[in-house]
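I am still getting used to backbone structure tokens and would like to learn alongside you. Label the sequence line and the structure token line clearly, so we can match residues to local backbone shapes. Would you write everything just below, so we can both look at the same thing?
***
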Amino acid sequence: MPPADMAARANDGLQLQHDGAGALLQRDYWAAIDECRVRPAELMSDLRQRFCEFPPADLVAFSRSGECDQPLCLGDELDIEIRMAGACRVRVTSCDTHSVTFSTLRGHPEAGRITFGTYRHETGAVIFHIRSRSRSGDAKFAAGFLTIGEAMQTNTWTDFVRTVASTYGAGVLGEVHADTVEVEPTEADRDETCPTFAAGGAD
């Protein structure tokens, strides 16, 4: 497929940040992995292959559309079943050696994108980091679901971080950090398919 057609396919049907309602929220969940056994790029390559294994099944279930024998790549989609919110979908809109980014599709309770990335801290520790930047999908979700959904999101992604840490190392070193802040759109947010943060550096 020509690059221009691939880019158009990647953007078709997205529920973008400006399509949503309410405040733009940036949510960060991250931790250092104790005694990590793999390099950051190796972790990400394997994670892109096994992504659906990591979310907590009692809160959310991910399933992959299409071929599942290769790591997630640009244009791949995941079906999601969220407890109390129902079914929705996301699409891979960016991926590289250290990160993968999903953007929401129409009908998702949120409008925006989320990046899963791994990198090495200056101390040598391997960090696994999730950052989303999104609004509620519509006013109904802004007024209703997110009242409960905020806690569900925190539990979902902190559990995800813990599972990654125990899969590739000896668990979390210290604690899982979880922060939510209201932010203003930046120039980077104009490209709804770019990562929410840059992962990489020394491997």
